[in-house]
Amino acid sequence: MLGFFIHDLRLFIKNGGGGWWWWWWWWVVVDSGGGDNGGSLWIPFSIHLTSSPPTSSTTPTTTSHTPDSSTPSSTLPTDQPNPLTSTLPNPTPTPSPPTIHNTRRNPKPNSKYHNSDFKLYTTTTSSFIEPPTITHALKHPSWRHAMQLEFDALKNNNTWTLVPSSHALNLVGSKWVYRIKYYPDGSIDRLKRRLVAKGFTQRPGIDYLETFSPVLKPATLRLILTLAVSQGWVLHQLDINNAFLQGILNEDVFISQPPGFGDPAFPTHVCKLNKAIYGLKQASRAWYDELKSYLVSHGFKPTISDSSLFTLTVGSSPLYILVYVDDIIITGPSASLVTRFIKLLSNKVSLKDLGSLSYFLGVEVLPHPHGLLLSQKKYISDIINKANMSDCRPITTPVTCSETFTLHGAPTYPSPTDYRSIVGALQYLSMTLPDIAFTVNKLSQFMHAPTHQHWTTLKQLLRYLQGTLSKGLLLRKNSPLHLHAFTDADWAGDKDNYRSTTGYVVFLGSNPIAWSSKRQTTLAHSSTEAEFRAVASTTTEVQWLTNLLSELNFKLPLIPVIYCDNLSATTYSANPVFHSRMKHLALDFHFVREKVQNGSLRVTHISGDDQLADVLTKPLLRPRFQLLVSKIGLANSSSILRGNVK
């Protein structure tokens, strides 16, 4: 006698788009009975169904920047435009059901298998995701189309030559990387894909020699923006397409054929690079050398103070070029001169004209009748979301006054990688936020061994940033161009080694252009010594800025002034007598005094109540902290947009 028994198991999962995926599994048990001779046969089968909300008939409109129509065609590769607005084989693919590749029953919480693939497919609200491997990318029509365009462009650019593998002394691997680029408002700009070399497999002396490449200093950027806004100059922005592919290599470098795009006629051959590609250790240097040679050949000069700043004077009109890898800012009083330069550069490389400066290196540049506001609101939001603190309660100061930073004051934090990742990301916020410089500097000193106390302080800082998302650095245009600085020191403030902390902020008029909060490298025997070392550090920064302004043909109307709240340190700066108790400060002493005596610098005493650098050396109470922050130049973007900035 045969018996049939049906068992079923159902699994429901809600997808990110608002629909549902579900699976049904049935087991049909066929029982033949018959006592000892009988048996059972289990036959499994399943059904998978998908339910998703109806898609809107209207597609969101996004804007992609393209080169000017007058730009000559180039064989250089260009970035893939926004697939949401392009004609692709499947521009709006149907969301796939979540594919769970984890085959372990109970993965460890901290293992690399723990929910990683599940989150990849279920936490996104868009059908476009960043593929973790080339296998996933090739399954998506838009990513596959983008990779094909990249590969064809590399071939047309004569990036490599196929040679037998026996020619390679060292074979460097290659891989594809994928990123989704967003606009400041969070909408998708384009899908970026890149073939990169595995530079970590390169060998010094064989694959590369020199790797250093200069990048734009943040103080230089703020200085040029201050000059441009005060003079009413044009601010223009360019983006170089595949900049690293322009560099010519001086070494023989061999990489494996691109994964998924190997030549079937020569499957064992390797690629001998004729030009640099992303991922090589010397790629940025090769690109900088190529760009520098081209600019110099057309009359530009790199400044000595910052090699990433190029200057050109045509008649009485200056033109300044700021280069940060493949992002370029152009400024000058003549709009026609800026246009001529863009056309000149387009003859050399493929570029995108992004128009007026609005978003540079993650910094939003918001114009206003009072000047420019530099904001990193989106970057801060990304950090807070990364820490899963988007719903945290804001506070008004980045650190409490009772906080003591020590190395062994609490148990070791169990996830140091998370701590290092967030603190490392916060360091870039010093581009526009001097109010968190002290706290970030302190937290960075414990990245090798963070404790629970440090993690708690880090969360306090994120709560402060949550409440100041709309704050930014205001560069005022109606400001006199004279250089002055505030310097301070917290004597023996480090409770682990009793070293002092130096803090300074340098202003050009009323605009802060340089600041620092840093632990001193040696012990100070007295508060005077700590303050004098801070004065010496500030003098170095002021002298560098003075030299940079001189190279830009800007003559300061007044002698630069450094304000120090320690009377003894101020006196020693101008004292012609060298005391024996200052022998260990001989270099700093003679350096500062030389600048004071030749009239290029003045050190002046200031009351501690007026010391703006106090916020860069120690924790402060809320009223004092907010007062100094407002005086330094931070402003609220919402109040600026309402026109309430004084």
Automatic annotation (TrEMBL):
Name under which the protein is recorded: Reverse transcriptase Ty1/copia-type domain-containing protein
Feature: compositional bias, Low complexity: 51-89
Reverse transcriptase Ty1/copia-type domain boundaries: 157-399
Stored SUPFAM superfamilies: DNA/RNA polymerases
Species per Swiss-Prot/TrEMBL record: Centaurea solstitialis
Record region (Disordered): 51-116
Cited InterPro entries: DNA/RNA_pol_sf, RVT_2
Superkingdom as given in the UniProt entry: Eukaryota
Source lineage: Eukaryota, Viridiplantae, Streptophyta, Embryophyta, Tracheophyta
